[in-house]
């Protein structure tokens, strides 16, 4: 009925133009992929404060840094190809769900338990103090992933050295932190203790520092050999647009043999 009225009331030439307009706009709509959950989407959600446009996967919730890390782990590490022991600190759910199903991994995951929230962590989660990994022997872990945790830890250098200690020779760690690349050196001020002031100075109420461009130096001082993987240089423009990536630097830390 509606189709008949449409054909009667709208001239053929105009119907053709409408069809062409709809078709051309449908084809030109942007399409993005999430490499983690393998979903295809027209747009991603906005996220952050202030909001970053079109950055969060609407299916799994991944952000730019998550997708960049996933691509790096696939392309540059042995995490999907060899039998290894992985220590994952404060695991993101999108990664936890994947790693926990991998038969090639001895997957150890832990977090700093907050009082009253112990039952909210996934079954098997270990209580971890990354400045004192006393339950782990020297040279016992093949790989460590710790993303956006060290900025919460007052004794971050101690944590870095603990990761080095538990890694096997030639073992690797990906230790990601928020970095202000306008800062030459890391900014800390231990007189700043209130949540309001920490958010003002460090970007978030539970952060204790802003890392600067000296971050890889800190990792090297802990004893690591550090390689910087820059997504903007390593990945094509097409790939960056397809997965909605930003210029993310991944610090790949290897324990010397």
SS summary, helix count = 9
Q: Which band does the percent of strand residues land in?
A: 15-25%
The CATH class is identified as Alpha Beta
Task: State the separation between the terminal residues, measured CA to CA.
Answer: 77 Å
How are helices and strands ordered from N to C? HHEEEEHEHEEEHEHHEHHE
Question: Structural class given helices, strands, pairing?
Answer: alpha/beta
Quote the CATH topology: Rossmann fold
CATH architecture: 3-Layer(aba) Sandwich
Average pLDDT metric? 90
Let me know the largest β-sheet.
Answer: 7 strands, mixed
Shape: globular
Low-confidence runs (pLDDT<50, min 5 residues)? none
* CATH homologous superfamily heading: Vaccinia Virus protein VP39
Number of domains: 1
Physical arrangement of strands within the biggest beta sheet: 7-6-5-8-9-11-10
Helix content class = 25-40%
Q: What is the total tally of β strands?
A: 11
Kindly provide the radius of gyration, computed on alpha-carbon positions and rounded to a whole number of angstroms. Answer: 23 Å
């Amino acid at each position: 009925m509606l189709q008949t009225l449409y054909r009667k009331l709208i001239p053929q030439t105009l119907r053709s133009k409408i069809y062409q307009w709809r078709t051309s706009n449908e084809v030109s709509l942007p399409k993005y992929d999430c490499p983690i959950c393998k979903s295809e989407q027209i747009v991603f959600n906005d996220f952050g404060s202030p909001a970053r446009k079109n950055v969060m996967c609407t299916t799994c919730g991944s952000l730019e840094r998550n997708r960049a890390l996933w691509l790096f782990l696939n392309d540059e590490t042995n995490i999907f190809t060899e039998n290894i022991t992985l220590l994952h600190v404060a695991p993101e759910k999108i990664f936890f769900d994947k790693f926990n199903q991998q038969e090639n991994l001895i997957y150890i995951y832990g977090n700093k338990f907050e009082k009253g929230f112990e039952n909210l962590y996934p079954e098997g989660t270990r209580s971890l103090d990354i400045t004192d990994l006393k339950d782990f022997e020297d040279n016992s872990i093949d790989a460590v992933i710790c993303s956006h945790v060290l900025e919460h830890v007052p004794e971050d250098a101690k944590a870095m050295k603990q990761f080095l200690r538990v890694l096997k020779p030639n073992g690797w760690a990906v230790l990601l932190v928020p970095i202000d690349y306008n800062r030459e050196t890391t900014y800390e001020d231990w007189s700043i203790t209130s949540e309001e002031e920490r958010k003002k100075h460090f970007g978030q109420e539970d952060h204790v520092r802003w890392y600067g461009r000296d971050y890889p130096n800190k990792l090297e001082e802990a004893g690591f050999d550090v390689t910087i993987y820059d997504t903007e240089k390593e990945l094509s423009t097409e790939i960056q647009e397809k997965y909605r990536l930003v210029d993310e630097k991944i610090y790949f830390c290897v324990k010397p043999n």
